[in-house]
Amino acid sequence: xxxxxxxxxxxxxxxxxxxxxxxxxxxxxxxxxxxxxxxxxxxxxxxxxxxxxxxxxxxxxxxxxxxxxxxxxxxxxxxxxxxxxxxxxxxxxxxxxxxxxxxxxxxxxxxxxxxxxxxxxxxxxxxxxxxxxxxxxxxxxxxxxxxxxxxxxxxxxxxxxxxxxxxxxxxxxxxxxxxxxxxxxxxxxxxxxxxxxxxxxxxxxxxxxxxxxxxxxxxxxxxxxxxxxxxxxxxxxxxxxxxxxxxxxxxxxxxxxxxxx
Length: 261
Fold this sequence. Notes:
Layout: H1 10-26, H2 34-46, E1 49-50, H3 56-75, E2 84-86, E3 89-90, E4 96-98, H4 110-120, H5 122-131, H6 139-154, E5 169-172, E6 178-181, H7 187-214, H8 216-229, E7 231-233, H9 234-242
Antiparallel strand pairs: 1-3, 2-4, 2-7, 5-6
């Protein structure tokens, strides 16, 4: 339980246990089980389940998208292990891959951040590999990877531009008042920043495509299992990844249109 709730605040823990008690009461149970707590913890972090009516084609696309995230996390050396992957909608997302940290982290290295970037783009890469097309389902992933790459360049000095803070600066003066200076960089410097951000994103996407292409059999296996079961817990995912590969099932042809997700 402690490993499951790394990063939870006291309020998160309280909400989780309240939700777990409600889950147990709905089932007329006299005790709260780990399954009740697991579902409650997921709800606290990702929102409640939403059953959306999807076509078989859209469901398959979502399954490949989430399988792409999960496989990239599995094969990245510095990534945390996959805890749960699902194609059941929560919040605004049609599915999710939950990769919580194994322990509290106070520092993240450049290699860890780059591996995280690959995982973020795993969904889009899987869509391109399987369907030779793209959907709008990766919008949130793209926003996250862009923000991560920008922080690496602007705040963390993890690019060819060197250890220079290129963003807004905050400090306190002698009277303990907060001093704020907005970012003031030249057009040339801004162009260099944009170029470095694009390098990180492009390199991460290339690694994601290479990883999933190399392990296409596992991508098919995880995606088809998600279509059948909808949710895979961490141990189930690990078992599938370590199982000997079998020939992939033949796919039904999909339409050439770009589905709206």
